[in-house]
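The material for today's practical consists of a large collection of protein records. There is nothing in a record beyond a sequence line and a structure line. Backbone structure tokens are a discrete shorthand for how the chain folds in space. Nothing more is needed to start thinking about how sequence determines fold. As an example, a complete record with its sequence and its structure tokens follows.
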Amino acid sequence: MARGKLRIYLGAAPGVGKTYAMLSEAHRRVERGTDCVVGFVEHYDRPRTEVMLRGLEQVPRKRLEYRGATFGEMDVDAVLRRAPAVALVDELAHTNIPGSRNAKRWQDVQELLAAGIDVVSTVNIQHLESLGDVVESITGVRQRETVPDEVVRRADQIELVDMSPEALRRRMAHGNIYQPDKVDAALSNYFRPGNLTALRELALLWVADRVDEYLNAYRSEHRVSRIWGSRERIVVGLTGGPEGRTLIRRAARLAEKGAGGEVLAVYIARSDGLTSASPKELAVQRTLVEDLGGTFHHVVGDDIPAALLDFARGVNATQIVLGSSRRKAWQYVFGPGVGATVARDSGPDLDVHIVTHEEVAKGRGLPVARGGRLGRARIIWGWAVGLVGPAVLAVLLDTAGLGLANDMLLFLAVTVAAALLGGLLPALASAAFGSLLLNYFYTPPLHRLTIADPKNIVAIAIFFGVGMSVASVVDAAARRTHQAARLRAESEILSFLAGNVLRGETSLEELLERVRETFAMESAALLERASDVEPWTCAGRAGFGRPLQRPEDADVDMPVGDHMALALTGRVLPAEDRRVLAAFAAQAAVALDRRRLQEEADQARALAEGNRIRTALLAAVSHDLRTPLAGIKAAVSSLRSDDVDWSEEDRAELLQGIEEGADRLDHLVGNLLDMSRLQTGTVTPLIREIDVDEVVPMALGGVPEDSVELDVPESLPMVEVDPGLLERSVANLVENAVKYSPRGRPVLVSASAIADRVEVRVVDRGPGVPDEAKDRIFEPFQRYGDAPRGAGVGLGLAVARGFAEAMGGTLNAEDTPGGGLTMVLSLRAAGSRPESPEAGRDLAEPERQTTL
């Protein structure tokens, strides 16, 4: 079955006419014979909308009870059974009443679409998930009902229902949107002209972006290469030079003059990676273009004009902004330049702007061949061979007489040796010096710098050319070898960083230490500030040396955004190292954000736990504490009443109810206080040696006599515990076991010695607890299964485990053979305490006392 099509009417605010437009579309379709039904449309007592519903088939709504009221929701099953061609579903972002088929209405719509039913729906721009924060900053109201952007983007048709703020406010004032008693409040709050204008702009821009996406998709699908000037899109060509900032600002001014102008800055890098661009300058220009609302792009291409034009046509640009060439006049012999080539090949659909700047004709500053990459020792040997070698060879050949051809080959061998050792410059010097020596000593007329035979001129020229070619090839090979090794090291470092990003393992300090070690620096620090006028603060530091107060004090600084920088001291880094440093800087910022998010998450977790405890405490106070209070109140009121002559049996029963209620209150309040002390860490046990058989019987006072069997041998070793805490722990365990144990099946309390521990076991024959819930029953305010509210607030086991751990013991739950649950309280036997004073310091301070 083919998937249905979704059509959405998008509005900037309630009341612009989305539902009216949807119903008008439905009437048009019905007139054309289309099977169209109303799945859910809310008219909100708006007369014109209510009139539009007449004549349309409406699927009855599904009635749901929630919090004592009845609500109507779309009956998805009924719509699916009806199987119309088109279904109208209003308010796409609506949250369904609990108990509905789906939590959100857009999920209902997805089911209808999957069943092959076309859907027409409505939504306001403020309900899009990605715009929640923006809408809140504009209106001051947080939208609780949202729909994922992707759901709306995937719609087959999106139609904007637009209305000016003034017209919408007039509709509001006339009572066409809200009831009269709500009009004044709405006009002075959400429907202020500024709010409506901002929301309208959001809707227009969002729809414009979607139209742009559809246009790009259409051009790609139909392979349209010609530029369609549907909007001004300006491409700025950057070289990495300082003139780039001027070009970006100029392009931004051009974009402001056109409707919906957009700036795209692009840097074309050669595929070999050999470039004169400054990474720091490119980072500054990236920040600038993003601050001006544009985007930055990095493209690889050996033919820079062709790559720039391909990019411009690919993004459907209408204008290109380039800077005047920095080349000097003599450099134009190598070609017309990028600007002239782009202007020549741009065609009639692309305008090219050549912008002047302060760097015009100052030279491109291209770096010379870096022979230093071969190493200082090799360069020295290269110069020695290149200058001394030809002279020595000339002396040796002066007596040998091998002929000009052999002499030239030997001199060429010296030139190649100089190139292999020292690179380009020593080889060029060797070729030039060798040519002079060949001319002076071996070409007639001898010992003169003239050449009589033209063939010798050609031979010497060829010799010099071959020497230069060989030297260039050797130097290029050395540069490529150095670059390959460097790129391999960079790839290893970047792989390390990528792995850390995925795993989230490296802390900020460890990362800064890695930066310091990688670049052999003295120190590395991540500096940040809140704004341009605020002082810099150090978010993290590694290494030694002077502390940095600002990035300008460092030997190397790498900006990360507007208000953060990675600063290093020790030496000045070459430009080629800054690319990897930029990756480290970005990862350092990510590590800092991750650390802060983790701290916030920990705080939020603590707050959530506190809120959970407080919520449960309120629930306990609202019911479990009020119930015995109500019973005591009723019993006391009955006894004080003069209207009834109570018998002695009745009085005794009422007094017994008062006593039981008071005991229950005392038990609940005691557990609440104990839990609060455990949560705040104020439980300080007084540890001393005592026999288990002295404490356990005292813990059974709160349960009926025939409900517990006791099996505690007198021969057990003494335990190191706080008697009060042990008694409270055992009492809670026994009360819990008796509560769940069947009538006539007493609870067994036994004790035994195992190695250096004494275990107290509380065994019941109740329903038991599954393995996955055994740890959860020890959490505060947890009651397992269908325990009645009057069974307590769920603190007994949590308090028991807390007291056990405070005494250095453990409390765990095990299955009872044959059915039931066994609580195992493990205590430390006397004499088994660690001898280290540090290990027992918190348990062996006799001046402290237990407070219960």
Confidence is low (pLDDT under 50) at residues 364-372, 785-793, 834-852. The radius of gyration is 43 Å. The CA atoms of residues 542 and 779 lie 42 Å apart. The first strand starts at residue 6 and ends at 11.
